[in-house]
Here is the input.
Amino acid sequence: MSDDLTAFRAETRAWLEAHCPAEMREPVRSDKDVCWGGRKARFSSAAQKQWLDIMGARGWTVPDWPARYGGGGLSPDQAKIVRQEMADLGCRTPLHSFGISMLGPALLRYGTEEQKLEHLPRIARGEIRWCQGYSEPNAGSDLASLATRAEDMGDHFLVNGQKVWTSYADQADWIFCLVRTDPTNKHRGISFLLFDMDSPGVSTRPILLISGYSPFCETFFDNVKVPKDQLVGEINRGWDVAKYLLGHEREMISGMGTQGGAISLSKIALANLGAEADGRLADPILRARIAQFDLRAEAFRAMSERFLDELKAGKAHPAQPSMMKYTGTELNKQRYELAMAAGGSAALEWDSDESRQGAAARAWLRTKANSIEGGTSEIQLNIIAKRILALPGA
Amino acid sequence: MPMFLTDEQVMLADTARPFLADTAPVAHRRALRDADDERGYAPDLWRRFAEMGFTGIVADEADGGLGLGHVEAGIVLEEIGRNLTPSPFLSTAVGAVTALKGASEPLRRRHLPAILAGESIAAIAIDEAARHRPHHVGLRAERSGNGFRLSGTKRFVPFGHVADLLIVAARTSGAPDDVDGITLFAVPGDAATASPRRLADASLAARLDFADVQVDGDAVIGEVDGGRGPLDALLTVLRTGAASEMLGLANGAADMTMAYLRDRKQFGQAIGSFQVLQHRAAHLYCELEVARAAVLKAQQLLDQGAEAADRAATVAKGMVGFASLLAVQEGVQMHGGIGMTDEYDIGFYMKRQRVLAELYGDSDFHADRLARLSGY
Here is the structure.
């Protein structure tokens, strides 16, 4: 490690220790502790807002984006140090954002300079919350069959149609949306539009899920006018942008497999079952299952680090996000199945205060979507077989 | 340190890969087996390892080595694994060389030059029972004159019957499961009576009987009774090395299987075009990628001298155990009937995987160890 980076690590740590509010170094306990920003932001505490503002001002919500777009302007090595020191000090992520994890990378690659300057700094500071208009009732795994129309009306597009599984559409300010601009060409008839969710003709309806929550919406477009300069990339070439963005979405979802710090299966199990005299968890079979899981989870943490390093250095296979998404989400589902086993009947409670309104059961049910959203596990395996393994006819 | 190979490490891999593929492919292992070879390795090949500098990879430059690390040793081990090359590289150039780093100058001078020159090989004698239980050390070393008398038995010692040097974990005080009272010795290969056993993969592992054998006092590595730490450090290196070899083995088996999926036709098409096999192949790929990351993590932490290497080695050996088992099982199954024949190489991979899995603890052992390290 070079002296420069050693000094940077020390400065970073000192800065974080000085500026991260103590409350923001407590583990995330519920959805309320997660900050999404946006025009309708509801901060659960003053510290949460303060942490977002201070990190946004420094550009450290997106440490490796260029400074002129609101980022920290850091090198990959420096950005990694920021992430490591934040993790080490237990600092919460200041801003969760589809703008950061999905739209930002796509805009950096495909956006015009005007689009970058308009949107990226607002994403970095958490001022605008974005949602993703991809899936439709008849375009799920076969996403490119989407039918939401955008007609060229000269000075604007007129958008009509319906999206589904739009995460937090009811709380989002803007949408990045796939629309059909040429009905005669499946993949080369799709365009990528940005528009304000307050535009006349946009409406949303939350969908009640098995967890009892409604993180997803149906989103309807009824003669929505979208200015022409809100097209990203070329007309009819939105599928390229969409695929590029999906890679980043899969990366984000795969990160769930590494968020093990939030729950420790062995702690839950020890609390409920106790230990033998030699310290071993009292249920030997559950202990073995948790141990095998923990071994895989630690190996996957190494994989996540390796993947990020390779990605930043341009060494990752372009389809590697599919590998991360598949593995990370399958692991996360296993984690929560084990959490339910470790929690026993206490984990089944749905609305008691002791259970924090069924946090365990609802989190368990939420994870079932991990291997569906952002492309199912089966679609990821198809992509790996075709693009990485080059198997025939795939 | 980013988690990918440096340019220099890539160059080493580019050297090691064709060297092992050309000089010691699976056919080399098959030929040794078919000739009922009693050594378990080819001395000519071992001398070529020395010429390539491989024998001194992890040895310090002051001792005449290359002063490289476990990432580099792992690169060579991966190619050994990919080609199923019978080689004393792990026990000698990785295990013994590491153990000797804690030894006195005279002891290092006695053993290292011959190892680096490819004239001497070493074996590591730790286990005493059918399952890996390294802290159960019953082999006694009683003080006698200015040295020790060793009595007891070691099992599952690869190359134990042909080694010039034995690294032995012995008990100098206390009961077999005590933490204190272990001492590491570097003794001549003829100190023990060796009974080689041919294993399922045609490799040879010896049972070593020490019948009140006198060894010099200066054969002790480190402190008398203080061998637990050096033994654990040696195990971390051996586990990481065995994991590297298994990673190569797993990728070798997977590559062979992917090639077969592309070539073999049934129902008028390549069987690799069937989704049921594609998904299993893709799942295997994911397991191998995760295993590679776990192995690289352990290697890098070892090279940084980090305490966390011990835990990472357990994760690596356990994870690569899962992944390599899947690779050989899918390998034989996807090859169909010919996968069961001796003529095809895939079965060699299955048998070798089973042996390497057992060496220095299988996935069950390491899952249990991880749980203990984590306080449950």
In short: The longest helix of chain B spans residues 228-263. Chain B touches chain A through 47 residues (CB under 8 Å). The mean pLDDT of chain B is 97.
